[in-house]
Each structure stands twice: as C-alpha cells, then as structure tokens.
Write a structure and sequence with these properties.
5 helices; Ku70, Chain: A, Domain 2; alpha+beta; Prok_Ku; SPOC-like_C_dom_sf; two-stranded antiparallel ribbon; Non-homologous end joining protein Ku
Length: about 270
Amino acid sequence: MHTVWKGSISFGLVNIPVKLHAATENKDIKLRQLHKECHTPISYKKVCEGCEKEVTEEDIVKAYEYSKNKYVVLDAEELENLRKENEDKSVEIIDFVKLEEIDPIYFEKTYFLSPDATGSKAYALLRKTLEESGKIGVAKIIIRSKEQLAVVRVYKDALVMETIHFPDEVRSVGDVPNIPDVDTVVQKELDTALMLVEQLTTEFDPSKYTDEYRTALMQLIEDKKAGSTVSVNEKRPLPDNVTDLMSALQASLDKTKKPAPRKRTTRTKKNA
C-alpha cells in the first residue's frame, strides 16, 4: 500500500511514528477525448490569452486574484519558504470528542494509519484507549502544503485518520433556497412514511451496493472490443411529480410489503 505521508501522532507526551495510506480509491472509468475524424487523442496546450502564444512551466507564476483582473504575484521561493515553515510532520491530537457529535457534512477523505517500526506499542495503546473511551481524537495535519483538520478513530483493527472541513468551509444552511416550513407536514402522511421506513429498515451491508453504471459501462466497452452488437436497453420510466402524497406513500407500502408466511397445514392420517 502506497505511503502518502510519514510523521507521527502525539497525544500528551506519547509519540507514535506512523505512515499514512489512502483508504479509498476512485474507480471511475476514465474516457479519453479523440478527434472524431481520425481517432487521434486530443491534447491541451497552455496559452497566454494576452500574448496569444503557448507558454512553458518556466513561464508561469502563481498569483492571487483579489479583485477582477488584479493580482498579487507570489514567487516560488516565497511559497516554498512558507511551506517549510508550516510543514510540521506531526499530528497533535488537540481534543477528544464523541464521533456522533460531528455531522457527516464535515468529513472529507479517509486514510489508514500504520505504525512505523518503533511505534507498534504506542499505536496499540492509542487504539485501545479510543476503543475503551468511546472517543475520537481531533487533530491538525499538513498534507501537500495544506493544513487540514482531522479526526483519528478506530476502524476494525486499524487507526484511521479522516480529514474534515473547517467550519468556514461548510456553507450556511440559511443560503439554501426554498426550504419548506417543518410545520406543513400532515400527521397521517407522516405516520404512513414512518411505516414505509420501518418496512425498508435493515442492517447496513455495504457489499449489497454496487456501481451499476460503472458495471454497465465496462460491459459496453468489453462488448465493443469483442466486436459484439450492442443493444440499447429501454429507459426505465421516471416517476411522475408527486401530487398526491398519500397515494404515493400507500403504493410504496404495498410494493415493499413482505408476503405473509404461508400457513402450514397438518394432515391427519386415516386409520388403516
């Protein structure tokens, strides 16, 4: 497993040398863009709009646009010095909190933490401490020159670190348009909706959920590679806009209702 970061985790005076590994992977199917006429891959060039000519990496500098077409240019050396000043290769756990206190909207990316050669004992201690306390650690880390807020928690037998958004990175719910008043709910509709939720409630099994689009796309690619005739599936009908909530809820209940168990009948033996 590829190491994306090396450093240490500390809580109090306990220091744990660790390595960071990406816990998830993007399985999107990447499609190239080709020229329709000759199927040659399309390339992209960096062009200066002012000079109308192609530029190389050496001709490019980074800048911050503080107002329309007004920039503060930052030298590569200035950025490198700033990065080095803030590149602390340690994760200090600042606080311990309960996982349920953090809304999922804050979570960003998950990493596995593995102990370095000398860190196994301290790693096991932190893992056991988090398990026994029922808490997770809140920490800060710098990854690729960006400071991240993060949490450290137990996942199965490993410690994982999940980067989370800073509060000012989460947009205000007040900016979301057309949110209905909570008092508009009809009790009968609510009771029926709760019955539907109850019928659809099950234990979470991640293995039952698959990316159907990716599977179908790969099948299409394999069929075309093999020269097979590709058939187009009929579109599934989309539900109409819900105008009668009770009718829609009742139909949903009927559709998800489990069949009643068949009654077992006992036969009486005839006397010979």
